[in-house]
Amino acid sequence: MKEPLSLRHDFWQVFATYTFLLIVGIGGVWMALHFLSPSDDVAGTRRGLALAGLVSMVIGFGVASWVRAWIRDDLERSRNEILQTLEAEDSAVPEELGDSVKELRKKVSQLETDKARLSVLLGAMSEAVVMLDGLERILVANPMAEKLLGLTSPYSKRRLGEVTQMKRLTDIVSDVLWRQTATITEVDWPASHNDIRHLWVSVAPITSDDKDPAGVVVVMYDVTRLRRLERVRRDFVANVSHELRTPIATIQSSAETLLMDGMDVGPIGVEFVETIHRQSGRMGQIVEDLLTLSRLEAAGEELAMQNVEILVVAQDVLERFRPVAQKNGVSLEIEVPEDLPPVQAEPRALQQILANLVENGLKYTPEGGQVIIRATRRDSDVVITVEDNGIGISPEHVHRVFERFYRVDTGRSREVGGTGLGLAIAKHLVRRLGGDIVLESQPQKGSKFKFWLPAHEP
Length: 458
Prior knowledge:
alpha+beta, Beta-Lactamase, Helix Hairpins, five-stranded antiparallel β-sheet, membrane
């Protein structure tokens, strides 16, 4: 196969030959017509020369046409050979490129499908979802967020503080971006003059591959209706408890009078009166616990915080329950270091917390067991533990024991008594004091109730 440069060289060589023949033919005719004398004898000669020139020109044209046809065929063959060679050498490249294009189209299609699904998912959510970049500019917001925040287009790429008047939310977003720590809180937002909305807000940071902050995701849920229902329930419980307190106290005092006066009501009558007295006392305790829980949930009462010595409060609580412990054959112990700093708490609240936990331990600890109050220092807090070696609690019940009226074993709970509100009250009191409470328990190995309160720093 000839190289393209050689083909061009052959073409110009033949073209020069063709041009030379054409010039010779034309030149011969011109010389014959103009340089010979115009005699009769010469006229034939001139005609002969002209004819010769014409023949030369025709022959030149014929030779040039043949050479041109030969060159065209040769060029066509060369071009075809070059194309075949290129196709043979590069046949693998288009195949690989085709596979890459197919894979790219597949990924683009998958991304479009995922985007459509995400759009449908965000649009169907009852929660408001907003994604912001590191400069607090809005990237994505679902329809619920647009409605809740009052966003109007175009809001994309605009800062959150520019499109909403919820300053508390912008402060939370800025704090999460700065600390790179997720937060969950509740925000009260005046949507209008007479409409206060209660929003549950969760803000989580987004980090890039190089661990740099890339933005945040904000999830908001309007809990206004739930809070209103909760307030109605709380008010109803408080009102009913107040209404029940007087008649229950009257029943209890009447039964107690019958027992003390020694009236002749017979053995069966005495048993009935004792049952009335016992159950009315239990009902009275439930009412008092419900009132206490309602006050704690209302969070209207301010606790008088002060420095409280845990050892003193623990000793008072154990002395209160020591007769019951001796009757049940359960020992009560205290393990509190003498150099333990006091805690920031309200004395009566701390006493009620310990009393409820100790009472719970005594109810579910068999004869020969023990209930121990421990306290240790941990960083800026004091951790207080009420531990028993009783029957314990199964893992599936651990996260529910602080719910009101929740019973792990309803049959046993009826035997040991109680209102089912003691642990719920303890949890609310601990949180009102600025701490938290957890339970660690295993069946047949006992339970550990741990709560921590801020230590007093001198």
